[in-house]
Design brief:
about 750 residues; mainly beta; Maltoporin, Chain A
Length: about 750
């Protein structure tokens, strides 16, 4: 039935065009300066409404409305994006695009200022650092053929985050801002920045920006015997700019440092305990803590060679250290092995002894060393150099916008982990024995890659045709040492692999009239296997067709898409619940993901004419995804799959509606987010309670009152109705979405 509807949508999308939200504006910052320094692989600031492909931009004004720090709440505004929430604060996002797997963003390309920002995007894309959204100035979501210019992951799409630019103010002036917020559960936030430009002499100008973020919460969950469940983050950014007065040369150096301590856990709740007390945490999670350190170094040069030719070059290096100390498993009943915490919580009746050790009731003394806590200690580094040449030329009646980019990239993931054992005594975890460093995992994954991208946007009259081609050559290496071999002498295993792939794509637009733009496109999807993997590369063909419409302040867009996977790949991670060897990859065979993305926006009335304005925007996604073959897999989210089974964590419906009221000094905004139910593992038919990700309607409110043009009071309420819902059974047990959270404070600018 859905297939017939979707066929009609592909054919009729040009007629039923609906939506591009007001948040999906041109890639511009608050001051109107193009974010060209960040869009390194696009080479232009083309209006996204003219792009042959699905691209949405959430601009600085939209981001400031709710001042979200949780990326999940921000990306609800973009259709075709799927979010598997985990801990309620957005610290561990799981983002997928158009049916790509969402686990740890491992099937999408994530960038900051045009640079791959995953700690090791080739060797270990499923990693545990994500930029804090509080300091992000704009977000670009690219899907379909528009995403192949980024790479290496093109099966779903790309997410490009833009940091705060150096303020584009007159020489000798400075500009800055300060946001101070506090609220429930000990929530507190301070964000400040200052910067500007000055004449240097000799036809040169120097500029700079300093930005600092402090954010913390005591947490909304409660450990039975007490303990911390919150987080604390500091994030600093420094930029130094140098530009010629004629803007032909622009240099920018960037340094960013992120530090996080979060008392987060993989341990969830049984269904019965979730129903009774959804924000409870078992005593067995009391020792769990994540520590992250991340540094970015970046140098960019843009040279406007001529009015029609530009060259942008960027060098980057970033390092990430993360150690998540968390409960991994519990001693089995025979005392000869271990039971993963996901298995214990999923079936507490069959694991009563393990549950007793895990819960640790008052007066209870558990088995000696029955709780095994793993120090998931990992070091990452990534280094690269990339350049893009953009050329505008004309051949006869055809205007060409040519882009050629090249990137050399190297990254690595170093795992040097250990297990400690604890005994539960009267609700407290007591260390029984400490493991030796490197005694649990002792290995290094490395990647070297060259990538090339060529695109020619050819405009002739009302038509635009844009073919593009990406080439990736990837060399992977995995080295294993004996457990406990601290000196890393002779390795026990070395595995080399090589991948060379061509990724073509093409898009086309037809300006039917000044109000309607038709678009269509196709591209090859690709995701490389990890170091040491025996799985095939993940590949697909993706297609889209739709239309954009605008008239009298209305903007609308409708795009139907089909992602046809030749081979879907699942990666075993602790975040998927374990039950397999961490890092192993599994072939899922042919899969189809079909869907429709609709967005619309309009501002009713006008401030000048009536004293108020009512902006309304909508984003909706309809999805149908199924496996095309039957197979049995050791990968937990799949298990025993029958042809026609639905994919996990892909709801059929997603809707986000925003309605505002803007007066001379007061701005009120409400956001309604509705997500239909989804399943935790592959299957079909009615969803069992132990497999159901809850349907939910979550309402957020924001208010801002301007006391002066540069000083305002601000407040926000997240989850106004205090809706209780289960967002996930992964990694281990039922996990709640965040409860009602009220924050308030002040905003100042100069």
């Amino acid at each position: 039935m859905f297939a017939h509807r979707l066929t009609g949508l592909f054919c009729g999308a040009a007629v039923c065009a609906l939506a591009i939200s007001s948040a999906q504006a041109e890639v511009m910052d608050d001051a109107g300066a193009p974010l060209l320094d960040a869009v390194l692989v696009t080479g232009s600031t083309t209006n996204v409404r003219e792009i042959g492909g699905s691209v949405q931009v959430i601009d600085a004004e939209t981001l400031s409305t709710f001042a979200y720090s949780d990326v999940n709440r921000i990306l609800r505004q973009a259709p075709g994006v799927y979010l598997q929430e985990e801990e309620g604060f957005g610290l561990r996002p799981n983002i997928g695009i158009r049916g790509s797997g969402s686990d740890r963003n491992s099937r999408i390309t994530v960038m900051e200022d045009g640079v791959l920002i995953a700690p090791a995007p080739y060797a270990a894309p499923a990693a545990y650092y994500f930029p804090r959204m509080t300091r992000i100035a704009a977000v670009e979501v690219s899907k379909g053929p528009a995403a192949i210019k980024y790479g290496p992951l093109t099966v779903g799409g790309a997410l490009n985050l833009f940091s705060t630019p150096i303020p584009d103010v007159a020489n000798g002036e400075i500009s800055g801002r300060l946001d101070l917020l506090g609220g429930e559960y000990g929530g507190r936030r301070a964000l400040g920045s200052v910067g500007g430009w000055a004449a240097l002499g000799g036809g040169w100008e120097i500029g700079g920006l300093v930005e600092g973020l402090y954010e913390a919460s005591d947490g909304f969950k409660v450990i039975d015997a007490g303990g911390d469940t919150g987080f604390e983050i500091t994030d600093g950014l420094v930029k130094l700019g140098l530009r010629s007065a004629d803007r032909r040369h622009q240099w920018e150096a960037k340094y960013q440092r992120y530090d996080e301590t979060s008392d987060e856990t993989y341990l969830g709740l049984t269904l019965s305990d979730f129903a009774a007390s959804p924000y409870r945490r078992y005593n067995g999670s009391a020792a769990d803590v994540m520590n992250v350190e991340h540094e970015t170094f970046q140098l960019t040069h843009r040279f406007q060679i001529s009015p029609n030719v530009s060259l942008t070059t960027l060098a980057y290096h970033h390092e990430t250290a993360r150690a998540w100390y968390k409960l991994n498993d519990v001693r089995n009943s025979a005392g000869a092995g271990w039971v993963g915490i996901s298995s214990v919580v999923a079936n507490p009746g069959a694991n009563a002894l393990q549950m007793a050790d895990l819960i640790g009731a008052p007066g209870f003394t558990g088995r000696a060393g029955a709780l095994r806590v793993r120090n998931n200690n990992r070091q990452y580094s990534a280094t690269g150099l990339q350049s893009v040449v953009a050329v505008d030329v004309q051949t006869g009646a055809v205007d060409h916008s040519l882009e050629f980019s090249v990137r050399h990239h190297r990254d690595e993931e170093d795992r040097f982990q250990q297990d400690d054992r604890y005994t539960m005594v009267n609700g407290r975890m007591v260390l029984a024995s400490a493991g030796a460093p490197g005694s649990q995992t002792n290995r290094l994954g490395e990647a070297k890659a060259w990538s090339f991208f060529l695109r020619d946007e050819m405009a002739f009259g009302a038509f635009t045709l844009t073919p593009g081609l990406r080439y990736e050559t990837i060399r992977l290496k995995r080295t294993d040492w004996a457990l406990g071999d601290v000196s890393r002498g002779a390795p026990t295993r070395v595995i080399h692999s090589k991948t060379d792939v061509l990724i073509p794509g093409v898009s086309a637009t037809w300006r039917l009239n000044p109000e309607v733009l038709l678009l269509a496109g196709a591209h090859r999807g690709f995701a490389n296997p990890g170091p040491g993997s025996t799985a095939d590369a993940e590949t697909s063909w993706s297609y889209e067709a739709g239309a954009r419409w605008s008239r009298g302040g209305w903007q609308a867009e409708a795009i139907a898409f089909l992602n046809d996977y030749d081979n879907l790949v699942g990666t075993c991670t602790a975040s998927t619940g374990g039950g397999c060897n961490i890092g192993d990859q599994f072939d899922g065979g042919a899969v189809e993901v079909r869907g429709l993305e609709v967005t619309a926006a309009h501002t009713f009335a006008g401030l000048a004419a009536h004293g108020f304005a009512v902006p309304v925007s909508l984003a909706y996604t309809l999805t149908d995804a199924e496996f095309k073959s039957s197979f049995a897999s050791a990968y937990g989210p799949w298990g025993a799959v029958a042809a026609g089974d639905e994919l996990p964590y892909l709801p059929e419906h997603q809707l986000n509606l925003s309605v505002g009221l803007e007066l001379a000094k007061l701005k009120l905004t409400s956001a309604f987010n509705w997500v239909s139910e989804a399943r935790e593992t592959a299957g079909s038919g009615p969803i069992a309670a132990g497999d159901k990700i809850d349907e939910r309607l979550v309402i957020d409110l924001a208010a801002e009152y301007a006391l002066t043009p540069n000083f305002a009071l601000f407040a926000t309420v997240q989850n106004l109705a205090d809706e209780t819902y289960n967002v996930s059974f992964s990694p281990a047990g039922a996990r709640p979405g965040a409860p009602r959270l009220i924050m308030a404070g002040v905003r100042a600018s100069f």
